[in-house]
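Methods — Computational structure assignment.
A single polypeptide chain was analysed. Its primary sequence is given first, followed by the predicted tertiary structure written as structure tokens.
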Amino acid sequence: MRREFAISIYLAVFRFFFAIFNRFSTKEKTTFVATFGGNINAVVNELENHLPNHQIVILKANNCKMNFEKENREILDFESMNLVHFLKSIYHLATSSHIVIDNYYGFLAVTDFKPNVKCVQLWHAAGAIKQFGLEDLTNNNRSIRAMKRFKTVYERFNHVVVGSDEMVTIFKNSFGLEEERFIRTGIPRTDFFFDDIQKRKSINKLQADFPAIKEKKVILYAPTYRDGELNSTDLHMDLDKMYERFKYDYVLFLRLHPAVNGEFQNKYPGFIYNVSSYSTINDLLVGTDILITDYSSIPFEFSLLNKPMIFYAYDLHEYAQNRGIWHDYESKVPGPVVTTTKALIRVIEEKAFQAEKVEPFANSWNKYSTGNSSKKLINALYDVTTIEDDEKIREHV
């Protein structure tokens, strides 16, 4: 009740100032709102290549680790207590021709954009194992007012960007949207996985930051966030056993969810590295030899590297019941599912990764992500000719 009251006050203030600024004329300007940042960074870079005079504003949420700093970009702290940044953010949202977001943002419930404005949901994940939006089982505890607000937010999306037909189906159910709202251009940040030069640079940077990985392989553990664990760093993994078995051959990278604020106490600094604050997940993935995760969306992109994955789902039945995931989770994920550290170690020792499942998984979930997703999206949203179009024109001249 107290939370709903605070949200109502916030939205009332937001609505008031948005209504004032909405009287100003719309400019050829794109305002990006970033919590995760990877997809937005790829699109911003591509947009600057094709429309160098187009005004770009980036509103950073508190958890966003991406560094967008570059000449001619206006970057504002969207969720800070800075009143100037707050008001300027609302002004830009009210006067932009394009709004691009990468997460759920409640302020959209009170932003009645002009008819010519495009609001684009550039979701932060290429796929989804756990249920979200209208499908989230925790909605049973939500008020009628909250559910109405969620639906109003989803209705703001003129376009939703996807990399697969499977994700279209998920979004239709999660956001309650029609087929015509989806843009099948692929996920912008996956372009990186098709660029050998950029991948090599990322590996070099990772090795410079963590010299130990020049000699050892990398296990990346990236669990998803659990409700009620906001300040917890209990990994539910026996790190003592992991250290004793793999300390000579591997290092263990830990990538905790952005919502988790607890400070991890590292007993094995030469073996375990907390990379939760590392700005770019792609850099970590390209340097990873084995991924350990659970219900996260990371496997959808990691599969493009055709590397082994293990799904450490120690709370599988509880999580499925409380939050909701694929009904056929154990058969659909591209790797073995384990529930104990002992079983996890055994899979690594025996290399029982079910590698044959990775490529079909990647092809299915990344159908439209083929290395030029950023260009295709820019072409879909703006009146520009991309590099590929230029080449086709020359071929026919």
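Note: The chain has two domains: 2-187+370-395, 196-365.
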